[in-house]
Amino acid sequence: MHLCGHHKQERRAMPPKVKRRLQQRLLPIAALEITATTIVVADVLRAKSFRHGHRLGWLLLAFVQPFGPWLYFMFGQER
C-alpha cells in the first residue's frame, strides 16, 4: 500500500525501431570516445613532459567521459 497515493509506473520497453535508431546514433560517438581515450593513454605513457599537470592526473582524466581526452588535447599535450 502506498501512503502518498502514487502508483508504481510500469517501464515500457522501447520499440525496436527506436532502440535500433538510438544505437545507430550512439555508436559513432562511443567509437570516437574510445579512440580518443586510447590515443590519450598511449600519448601520456610516452610523453616526457606536459604543458600543464602531471602524468597520473592526465591518465585519470583520460577516463572522465566525454571531456577528459579533449581537455588533454587542449591543455596537456606537449606540441
From TrEMBL:
<keyword id="KW-1133">Transmembrane helix</keyword>
<protein>
    <submittedName>
        <fullName>PLD nuclease N-terminal domain-containing protein</fullName>
    </submittedName>
</protein>
<dbReference type="GO" id="GO:0005886">
    <property type="term" value="C:plasma membrane"/>
</dbReference>
<feature type="domain" description="Cardiolipin synthase N-terminal">
    <location>
        <begin position="37"/>
        <end position="77"/>
    </location>
</feature>
<dbReference type="Pfam" id="PF13396">
    <property type="entry name" value="PLDc_N"/>
</dbReference>
<keyword id="KW-0812">Transmembrane</keyword>
<dbReference type="InterPro" id="IPR027379">
    <property type="entry name" value="CLS_N"/>
</dbReference>
<keyword id="KW-0472">Membrane</keyword>
<feature type="transmembrane region" description="Helical">
    <location>
        <begin position="57"/>
        <end position="75"/>
    </location>
</feature>
<keyword id="KW-1003">Cell membrane</keyword>
